[in-house]
Amino acid sequence: MDVSTLHAANEELAEWLSELTPGDLKQETALPDQDIGDFYLRIIERDTNLATTIAHETVNDRPPVNAMSRSDLDVSPNLYGGGFESLYRKTARQLENAFESANSETVCRVDGSDMALGAAYEQQIADTVIRTWDLGNAMGFTYRPADDVARRVLAALQESPDNDADRVWENALTFATRVRST
User: Between vectors from CA 43 to CA 99 and to CA 155, what angle results, nearest 5°?
Assistant: First the structure.
């Protein structure tokens, strides 16, 4: 799959993350019960888990993901050779590589729903753009994606691989990082 749009969205989010300092981590976000530190951890966890799922879609025993804890955030900016964007870029590249090596028609279980990886890719672009808006908003800035990206996000959020209206809404909220998947 061509991952150039996802790469561009990831780089835009990384640019915003590069502005974070440890003091910013306790700032509230628009997300329920999540400050910027929690939000950051969720981004890393979600991208890592999705990359693992895609890379191992035919393997039942997935390797464990090394989860990061809140206490790890104090050393994170320096551990990866830059600011908070360094670890994000690392996990984003893993996800891009997983999508790039996958067939867009392959069906995979993502957030409790079976979907083609092409649809999961579009949802990931939407999720990344919405995350960027969430972060900018929490930092007190206005973020507006390019028109073509905004239209692509809207289209991705309007499409659903599922006919169950309750699951569609739950997935939309999950992809928009408003609720955790169960």
Answer: 60
Q: What is the pTM of this model?
A: 0.79
Pick the closest to residue 131 from 39, 47, 41, 69 (CA basis).
39
Higher pLDDT, 55 or 173: 55
Angle, CA of 140, 128 and 144, to the nearest 5°: 45
Listed as own residue / partner, the contacts of 102-105 with beta carbons closer than 8 Å and 24 or more positions apart are 102/1, 102/54, 102/57, 103/1, 104/1
What CA–CA distance (Å, rounded) separates 54 from 108? 7
